[in-house]
C-alpha cells in the first residue's frame, strides 16, 4: 500500500466473508457500472481504512446509502436469488481459471496474481504479450 500510495489499515476483523459487498457490487454493476466502481472504492475505504466490517449486510447497505443508493433497494438486491446466483457463477468462473487471491487478473489467457505483478500487466499491454 505504501509503495503504491494507497491508504491502508489492517482491519480489526480479518479476513471476512465478502458475500454482502460482492452482491451489492454485482447488482449495481448491472444497473450502473460507473457507480459500481465508486461503490468498490467506497467499500474498500470502509473496510481497509475506516475498519467497518462490511461482511455485515447492514454495514454494506450503509456504505451504499452514503453514495445515494436506496437502502431498501440495496438490501433487497443483496438478498435477491438472481444476484446470489450471479455471484456464485462469477466465483465458479474465477476458480475454474485458477484464481486464488486478489488481485488476480487474466489478459489474453495469461494470469497475473498480486499487486506486485501490476508492472508486468503494463508491459504485457504495451508489447502485446510475451513472445515465446
Number of strands: 2
Measured by DSSP, the beta-strand proportion falls in 5-15%
Biggest sheet: strand arrangement: 1-2
Q: Give the % helix.
A: 55-70%
Q: Counting H and I runs of at least 4 residues, what is the number of helices? A: 6
Output mean pLDDT: 95
Helix vs. strand class:
mainly alpha
Write up what this structure looks like.
- This protein is mainly alpha-helical and 132 residues long.
- Helix content is 57%, strand content 6%.
- It contains 6 helices and 2 strands; from the N terminus they run αααααββα.
- It has helices spanning 19-31, 33-48, 57-66, 71-79, 81-97, 118-127; strands at 104-107, 110-113.
- It has a two-stranded antiparallel ribbon with strand order 1-2.
- A hairpin with a 2-residue loop joins strand 1 (104-107) and strand 2 (110-113).
- The longest helix is centred in the C-terminal third of the chain and has 17 residues, at 81-97.
- The chain is globular and about 55 Å long.
- The termini are far apart.
- The model has no long low-confidence stretch (mean pLDDT 95).
Amino acid at each position: 500500500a505504501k509503495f503504491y500510495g494507497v491508504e491502508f489499515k489492517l482491519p480489526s476483523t480479518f479476513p471476512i466473508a465478502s458475500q454482502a459487498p460482492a452482491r451489492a457490487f454485482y447488482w449495481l454493476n448491472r444497473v450502473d457500472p460507473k457507480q459500481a466502481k465508486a461503490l468498490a472504492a467506497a467499500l474498500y475505504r470502509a473496510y481497509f481504512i475506516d475498519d467497518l466490517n462490511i461482511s455485515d449486510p447492514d454495514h454494506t447497505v450503509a456504505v451504499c446509502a452514503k453514495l445515494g443508493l436506496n437502502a431498501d433497494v440495496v438490501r433487497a438486491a443483496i438478498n435477491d436469488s438472481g444476484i446470489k446466483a450471479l455471484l456464485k457463477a462469477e466465483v465458479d468462473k474465477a476458480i475454474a481459471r485458477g484464481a486464488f487471491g486478489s488481485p488476480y487478473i487474466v489478459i489474453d489467457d495469461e494470469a497475473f496474481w498480486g499487486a506486485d505483478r501490476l508492472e508486468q500487466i503494463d508491459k504485457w499491454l504495451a508489447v502485446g504479450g510475451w513472445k515465446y
